[in-house]
Amino acid sequence: MHDYELRVFYEDTDLAGHVYYANYLCFIERARTEMLRSAGIRQSELRAEHGITFVVRRLTAEYNRGAYFDDMLRVRTRITTPGAVRLEMAQDIFRDDEHLFAARVGLVCVNARGRPDRMPDDVLAALGKFVSDDPA
Q1: Entry pTM
Q2: Residue among 3, 14, 71, 97 flagged as catalytic
């Protein structure tokens, strides 16, 4: 699993002072990027050296509770189904121990033509440390 912490800024909120619903997707995108970086994977290098990128194929989201300006949040990311071309991830957002948001994200590795393509073996191996079916 990988944890990423962030603070809610004023620009993340709506007129009612809640985090605007679409910004949760930005938060989980940042967390996925930081998870890759922590494994030594730079997406810009993957594209430049291997001609591949990750794209979101499917996403489901469940909003449990709202977050507000100045809250400290933790995004927990784990790979639930690893694969050489497709990955399934669970991403959950917490404020302290309170579960605010849950997303299930399906990613596909694609080449420059936008076609599914296999990840390099070293990338797949590096992602192995984030594989977990434990929901905690």
Answers
A1: 0.90
A2: 14
